Amino acid sequence: MPDKTNSIAGKFLGKKVSGSSLYDPSLLVAVPRADNRRQYKIDSNNLLFEGWDVWHAYEFSSMTENGVPVTRLMKMKYNCDSDYIVESKSLKLYLNSFNMTRYGRNTAECLEICRATIEKDLSSKLKTAVSVSFIDNNAGRIRIFDNFKNIMDTVDESSILVEKFKEAPEVLSAEETGVIKENYLMFDSLRSNCRVTHQPDFGDVYIYYKSSRHITEESLLKYLISFRSEFHFHEECCEMIYKRLQDILNKGDELFVCALYTRRGGVDICPCRWSAGGALDDVFVLTDTCKYARGGIKQ
After folding, report:
1. Which of 71, 112, 170, 213 has a beta carbon 3.0–4.6 Å from 61's, enabling a disulfide?
2. What is the pLDDT of residue 263?
3. What is the pLDDT of residue 288?
4. Residue 21 has pLDDT above 90, yes or no
5. Per the residue annotation, which of 80, 110, 194, 290 is the catalytic one?
6. Does one domain contain both 131 and 153?
7. pLDDT at residue 36 in the model
């Protein structure tokens, strides 16, 4: 069961929460990143990666002053160097408080007021710059994951015995090949559990690394499966995977880890971490002409 002494649990969990029918920024809850990072020797003052946390609210809605509904896919992002993340249930309650709130004389004005308000509230709560945008219904799309091969297609699943379902870095193994190679792998059955609600979270994880060391696919598969009984936020799982893989690669090797989680309550979280100057950068999270869905980026 979730720890009821947790400040998040104390505010929302185990209680009937109806949220607010009108705009209410007090619903937002910030969670410090440092506690989990400390366990895995990730120094927040000297991060070993760059990256963003990207959120999509697929059902954001408000109204104009005349009571006309305005509904859009909302995208927000903030840098992984922030001290805090926003707790997802509190974000959903906060965004829902816009549903019956009236802004602007028309759709464009309503969206602009909402965008500026959400940016201000989240930036203040998380003490970092938060970028918010609304995706036009006719937006184009980009795909960066076409080169990634499902790890299940590289192994003989009938010969694999998986016995560890708590994060198990000891199952990872790598061998020196003497030849630098680019590797593009994905796993479409990532499962972990929220450390507050203990609800299961499912997603796809994409891993790119460029190295003369080869992480054996069977060991990588076993490691990713070992998250099935872990209790962490999405952002924490992504950083844990990154740190464990970096530990068995050579110093200076390029590494990229991105976890695209399925949405729950109309919101998904897509944390991405990469080595500075790597071949895969943040172009796909900076653009507003795409949105995420399980299995890749889809229109």
Report:
1. 71
2. 84
3. 43
4. no
5. 194
6. no
7. 87
Among residues of the chain, what percentage have pLDDT more than 70? 84
Q: Three-state SS for 298?
A: coil
pLDDT of 253 higher than 50: yes
Provide the H-helix boundaries in 49-206.
88-96, 107-126
From the candidates 201, 268, 270, 290, give the one annotated as an active-site residue.
Answer: 201
Burial label, 153 (beta-carbon count in 10 A; 0-12, 13-18, 19+): exposed
25 and 78: one domain? yes
201 classed as catalytic:
yes
User: For residue 58, which of 219, 262, 283, 204 has the smallest C-alpha distance?
Assistant: 262
Whole-number Cα distances in Å, 97 to 49, 87, 111, 290: 35, 16, 15, 26
Q: How far is CA 242 from CA 198, 207, 212, 239, 274, in A?
A: 23, 9, 17, 5, 8
**Pair (79, 122) in one structural domain:** yes
**The whole model's pTM is what?**
0.83
Same domain? 111 vs 166: no
CA distance 134 to 74: 5
Per the document, the length of the chain is 299
The mean per-residue pLDDT over the stretch 177-204 comes to 89
Report the alpha-carbon distance of residue 102 to residue 92 in Å, rounded: 18
DSSP state of 21: S
Known catalytic membership, residue 247? no
- Do both 76 and 205 map to the same domain? no
Per DSSP, the three-state class of 210 is strand
> Does residue 26 sit in helix, strand or coil?
helix
Q: For residue 29, give the 3-state DSSP assignment.
A: coil
Conformational region of residue 144, where left means phi above 0, alpha means psi within -120 to 50, and beta covers everything else = alpha
